[in-house]
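tool=predict chain=A
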Amino acid sequence: MFRARIIENQKYYNFRRKQLLFLTLTIIPAGFLANYFELPVWAGVLGILGYIAALFLQLRNQKQLGASAGDSWLEIDKSTIKIKAKNGHLKETIKLDDVKQIILQENYSLPQDSLKAVKEEILGDPQKNLIVFQLEDGDKQLNFEVDSHYNLVQLQDLIAFWQAQGYLGEQVAA
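tool=predict ok
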């Protein structure tokens, strides 16, 4: 079974980018303090204040990041697609038999899993994972974030199953 957090608000990607930048900002004052032992007192205090300010910004952004992601989870097995709330309550169920076609990206990945992905994230072009289910009553597009390599392998197994069953349609660029 594949499981991933559904990204309900596109601002999530902006908050994730800010989180990466704030993380970098907390490293700079910490590195400054650790590398210079004989600092004047004012420089040490300034470094500590800079660290605390960057940490405060990071924590505030972390709250916004969590709130913007939403509280829904995507669970997919070989016969059903389920959208569940964080507390486990079922919000929506789609049977695979009701799906006319599945549109996938060319590739899926974990966020910030390589230096290239980190660079793209900082430059404002984050990796977004999406999947579109074409149903009788319209398309259902889901943006999601894969949280582990295990789930990435589970998704690849499902894609192979869907391909064998003839559900796959066109692929869209990531």
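The first strand starts at residue 2 and ends at 6. The longest helix spans residues 41-69.
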